[in-house]
Amino acid sequence: MSERQHWLYRPRTIAGLCACGLVLLVAIVFAELFVKLYAHFTFTGWFGFHAVFGLVSCVLMVLIARGFGRLARRRADYYERRGRSGPAVGTGSVCDGGGGT
Amino acid sequence: MSLASVPPALLLILGAVLLPLIAPRWRLVVLLGLPLASLAQIWHLPDGVVLSGEFLGFAVAPLQVDALSRVFGTVFSITAFAGALFAYRHASLLEMCSALLYAGAALGVVFAGDLLSVFVYWELMAIGSTLVLWSAGTARAWRASLRYLMVHLFGGVVLMVGVTGWAVADGDLSFRAMSAALDGGGARALAAAFILAGFLLNAGAPPLSAWVADAYPEASPSGAVFLSAFTTKTAVYVLIRGFPGAEILIGVGLFMVFYGIVYALLENDIRRILVYSIVNQVGFMVTAVGIGTELALNGAAAHAFAHIIYKALLLMSAGSVLLMTGKRNCTDLGGLVQSMPLTAVCGVIGALSIASFPLTSGFVSKSMIVDAAAHEHLALAWSLLAAASAGAFLYVGLKYPWFVFFDRDCGLRPPDPPLFMSAAMVMLAVLCIGLGVAPGVLYAMLPHTVDYVPYTGAHVVSQLQLLLFAGVAFFALLPRLRPTLTITLDADWFYRRFPDLVLAVVAPPARLLWRALGESVRDRLMRAGRYFARCYGAREGIASVTGSGSMAIAALSVFGGMLLYFFLR
Predict the structure, then answer these.
(1) Total domain count for chain B?
(2) Quick check: A54 and B473 CB within 8 A?
(3) pLDDT of residue B75
(4) DSSP conformation class of B114
(5) Mean pLDDT in residue range A35-52
(6) A90 in contact with chain B, both atoms CB, cutoff 8 A
(7) Does residue B181 sit in the same domain as residue B283?
(8) Largest CA distance in chain A
(9) Is B461 close to A99, i.e. CB distance below 8 A?
(10) What is the ipTM score, two decimals?
(11) Regions of chain B with pLDDT less than 70
């Protein structure tokens, strides 16, 4: 390819961005040592609560969404395929839901 | 009535009627001038009832102004301006007229002082938005607009039942808080419940949330910008005014928040991801209305303001991608930052705003809602709202820009969109950052006195922890988040597929029964059928139609006539 690689896609940039991200993550957790966070409820008081809460709740949401997706996902042309007799739901039209690329 | 008391709605609605008569080269002036004129008028009008009259023995106030209506009126005018700028070069004349009508009707609702005026503008908004959808000109948009219209006409009937019931049970049609009536029992409670249901339908609340994601992504690139701004946020406005502190709204709002997240996580169509996030964000506002404290109601109004701007920005960036590439799915896109840097930057600013990153508009508005839940010691609601804030970064703040502008290179190299579109995006992006940096401007507009400081060290650190670790979850789960060529079933299945199933089950036995009947019986039944078709069929007889367009024009002319009459009286 004659096109020059965009600076954002160069391996060095990507490595640099990853490193910055890691530093930022560590910094923001340890910032709690210097800033007293509000404890709205007793369970929010411990160190790093918001970080853990953000991570865990997002993982849970993705898992729940994928579980729901197994039930409710259909092929993209589901509503365009009209006039098919027989049950339209359940048989054969459920997508694998796997992270197909 | 003097010129000083012209309703802002009338300016835009008259503009919609007159636009086709204006020479094309002057249309831009009208399209941009009218929203600015309505904005000036909103800030010029005095507080209180400006226009009043009597209709069917009820006192009506078609124009009433206070701080709450002014907040919504202001952001509606700004969006109408930015949307018109974005639409000008590519939208059809029909779309521009419909958008003006739609924006005007939305302004009408927020400045209506009585339920009858609310209803009239409410229905006009349904007509305007359907026309915006139609003007996309595709077969998919046409079918989606019919489903959209069906749902909204149904919602209109529900609202009308409520308003009529309220007129009978209460007798006073002035638009005021009705939350107490919900718990009171009797006819007033029933009427209030119908009104609430009518309002909630437009907010995208369950069980009929599906209309939002079914219709909006089928609009034209600019049509979706207008659609995202008005209907659902007008619903938030009427909820704030009509049902503050109605506890049921906390549950409804929280459901909407997670409905939006789950569906957006599974979605592939870029504009549909953004549309699901409308339901998600409106869910925050509905929850706030349910909490009902001054901080919560301020939060709902502020978040509606911020949301309209960043959502319009996001849909403009997605619309630009659609226009420049012709692709609408994440699976076909990626790496566009290389040739569309401006669109990417604007998209990222919108995404950071919706995720309520510090220094963006979302941070100063959404935090008010989450903190309002904490102040009321609603531990579960607070936890869910905080989790949803993190989720918003995951499912749209990262998913949308990542799969469209970054990630794998799809090989497409479209340029940034033309000048007018880029200018509209830059304008809204500047507003997103501006409101985040100087929230005082927004806070000064809110209905209740604001005693809230968003930028404290504790708040910034806790929010960044929440969001950055949501980012960790995104990249850790990236393979599982990769979109697939699928759609996700929703409640619209019941009116899109279920009838087919019923037919498939009922048809074979009915056919057998038909064959079993004697020749003469069949003949008589056929003749009866033909007779009914002649009398009541769609092509001739009582129910014949001469096109919905003519009906819309008839309705518009009647309404325009009424407006003129009251204006000149």
Answers:
(1) 2
(2) yes
(3) 97
(4) B
(5) 87
(6) no
(7) no
(8) 66
(9) no
(10) 0.86
(11) 1, 537-549
A57 part of contact set with chain B, CB < 8 Å: yes
User: Contact B473/A58, CB-based, under 8 Å?
Assistant: yes
With beta carbons less than 8 A apart as the criterion, state whether A55 and B470 touch. yes
Q: How does pLDDT run across B53-100, given as a tens digit for each residue?
A: 999 889 999 999 999 999 999 999 999 999 999 999 999 999 999 999
CB contact under 8 A, A68 and B262: yes
pLDDT tens-digit readout, B324-343: 999 999 999 999 999 999 99
Flag whether pLDDT at A98 surpasses 50. no
Which residue range(s) make up the domain with B294? Answer: 244-487
Q: Cα torsion at B476, B479, B485, B489 (round to 10°)?
A: -50
Whether residue B382 and residue A65 make contact (CB cut-off 8 A), yes or no, is no
Tokens encoding B503: 């037919």
- What does each C-alpha distance from B307 to A73, B55, B109, B224, B284 come to in angstroms? 29, 36, 19, 15, 11
Tokens of B335: 């790496």
Whether B431 and B568 map to the same domain: the answer is no
Helix (H) or strand (E) holding B54: strand B48-55
pLDDT the model gives residue B56: 87
Shared domain check, B270 and B165: no
- The helix (H) or strand (E) run that includes residue B61 is strand B58-65
User: Quick check: is B237 in a domain?
Assistant: no
The residue type of B490 is D
Position B297 in a domain: yes
Query: Phi and psi dihedrals of B52, rounded to 5?
Result: -145, 165
Question: Minimal Cα–Cα distance from A2 to chain B, Å?
Answer: 13
Q: Which of B262, B472, B473 sits opposite A64 (nearest CB)?
A: B262
